[in-house]
Design goal:
Length: about 400
């Protein structure tokens, strides 16, 4: 008996990028205390009023099959939010609700890529991107960004890889780098998409976590609404990671086909979760800022700690809940640094190489533990790097 190549080659035959994380979790399971600065999981839990709304909806009977494209109330709420934030007219016909952002990424690529098509994505990248593309039997092709450009993509580099490709996946604010793409960067990306007839898939799950600059959805740029699919989620903006509620926004014709896909795959999102998500979105920007505030605060703490030394350099942390740290002065790779740090101090960070080769010699630190513990762990990371930099 044989398994499909689609499933057996999902990670490309190599590591899936989670080796250090898995090592840390194994240490914890064995009874070792580990400070985890690895995944984008809020240290606060989903707010009590959202859980109360979820409970009330479930107890009220919304536990059966929900509408596959999403409830009309949630689709309308998402559409109003998108229209208000971007200025692009958006209705429920442009919105499909999905079981989280990851399912939306899969569905978006399924919508625009046939088997064997080339799908572009930017390196560094969130660890699931190439596997998601392989999952729809497309061929992932990375376009490297550069540390010297603060990982802002160059339109020319994308254009070099664009001939024959079908789609381009971008993510701003960016995981893992924390970079927010500038208007000039996005306008360059839009030109390449138009010139090479690419679909643009824009992962915007961190759009409420912007510390410098502004978040610009490329769907709002001239001529881009008809060729852009936007992925959004409740996970990061409302600390609802486990609720698995996200969406795709795009042309109505695409959404109609995506509804057919959902009918044959996920069959929608539980109604009581959709009701709680609708009520959470109705709480507005002030509530979203409250959820984002710990990361804004920890970013400021980190910048003060990192000032005045050269062993660790901070990539401009303009958004999202992560810091990308350049540790090349230590002479170690990101993998080597992360594993040695875990062994010596029981602090777990993600190696830059988990997110592609463009981030080699970097580590990603998630700002997802309480302030005092975060400062203590970051001081240890800096001191560890300084010792290795002196020896290098």
């Amino acid at each position: 008996m044989h398994l499909s190549k689609r499933i057996t080659t999902l990670t490309g035959g190599g590591s899936d990028g989670w080796d250090v994380f898995n090592r840390a979790r194994a240490m914890i399971a064995a009874g070792t205390a580990v400070t985890e600065l690895t995944i984008g999981e809020h240290d606060i839990r989903t707010a009590a009023p959202i859980l109360q709304d979820m409970h009330a909806s479930a107890m009220g009977g919304h536990t059966g099959y929900a509408s596959v494209p999403g409830t009309a109330a949630l689709r309308d709420t998402v559409a109003r939010r998108i229209a208000a934030r971007t200025g692009v007219p958006t209705t429920r016909d442009n919105v499909m609700i999905t079981p989280g952002g990851q399912a939306a990424l899969f569905a978006a690529h399924a919508a625009v890529c046939d088997p064997g098509d080339t799908a572009l994505y930017l390196d560094p990248y969130y660890a699931t991107y190439p596997g998601t593309i392989r999952g729809v039997s497309a061929l992932p092709r990375a376009v490297r960004t550069r540390a010297e450009d603060a990982f802002q993509p160059r339109a020319g580099d994308i254009a070099e890889h664009a001939p024959g490709a079908r789609s381009l996946l971008i993510n701003s604010p960016n995981n893992p780098t924390g970079v927010v793409y500038s208007r000039a960067t996005l306008e360059g990306i839009a030109r390449v998409c138009a010139d090479h007839d690419l679909w643009l898939i824009s992962d915007e799950v961190y759009d409420t976590q912007v510390w410098e600059g502004e978040h610009i959805s490329p769907r709002a740029l001239p001529g881009m609404a008809e060729r852009t699919l936007v992925v959004g989620s409740m996970s990061k903006s409302h600390a609802m990671t486990g609720s698995r509620c996200g969406w795709i926004v795009g042309p109505a014709e695409v959404v109609a086909h995506l509804i057919n896909l959902a009918t044959h795959t996920t069959y929608g999102v539980p109604g009581f979760i959709q009701d709680a998500s609708r009520d959470a979105l109705a709480r507005g920007p002030a509530f979203e800022e409250e959820i984002a505030a710990p990361f804004r605060r920890r970013r400021a703490l980190a910048r003060r700690l990192l000032a005045g030394q050269n062993a660790v350099r901070l990539v401009p942390a303009q958004g999202a809940m992560y810091l990308m740290l350049d540790i090349r002065a230590t002479g170690l790779s990101g993998d080597g640094f992360a594993n040695a740090l875990l062994d010596a101090h029981h602090i777990a960070v993600m190696p830059g190489e988990s997110f592609g080769q463009a981030a080699a010699g970097h580590i990603r630190v998630a700002m997802t533990i309480e302030d005092t513990a975060f400062q203590s762990a970051l001081r240890t990371v800096i001191e560890f790097a300084q010792r290795h930099a002196k020896a290098a």
